[in-house]
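Sharing in case it's useful to others searching the archive later.

Someone asked me privately for the predicted structure of PHOP2 phosphatase, so I'm posting the question and my answer publicly. Question first, with the sequence:
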Amino acid sequence: MKFLLVFDFDHTIIDENSDTWIVKCAPGRKLPNGLRNSYQPGHWTEYMGRVFVYLGDNGVKEDEMKRTMTTIPFTAGMLDLLGFIGENKELFDCIIVSDSNTVFIDWILKGADFHKVFDEVFTNPAAFSSTGYLTVQHFHAHQCAKCPKNLCKRKVLKEFLDKQLERGVSYTQIVYIGDGGNDLCPVMFLKKNDIAMPRQGYTLEKKISQLAQSLSPVQCSVLVWSSAMDIMSYLKLLTKE
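And my answer, the predicted structure tokens:
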């Protein structure tokens, strides 16, 4: 009996978007209009690349960025939930699939001492250049028309499950916890026995209910959460079975 927990990061584990939070480091805590308006749908990673150049040009250093990022609040109940998962690791494998980046997620999880809860983190690779600028790259290339150019979460999940099967690991159930539009693609990959947990009032919940209304519902069960305590209640039920 082993369960796979798949977490999104922004607005799921943390209660904010890590990429927009970093703007607090910019002069006057805002970006110039030209930069802000340069975002093109599906090309968020490229946009963030330009934001990081702007911060670097304005002398924003790594330690200041790190200090700012570790002030992001976790979602209500999330610290308790991660503590519970950490205490029950023999039952749960736990991964993050996120459109954030390795540097931000690493800082935030290590800052709160929760990095050991997660077996793997799949996100856009980021690093500081020799000149001290943060740079970010696409996670992978894919053919999915539904997803942003840099990341198809379904592809990540499928490849992870295939790799685990090769190691002889299969899961009783997959629990997918997320909030955003880019979480719909992996949720549609889940099977009847799996469960999707969209955050209440966010895009993923709305998209799942639109599918149900158009009579093409997702295969898996759906359980909406507003606090991570709702997720913990469900996991406690699983552990009792």
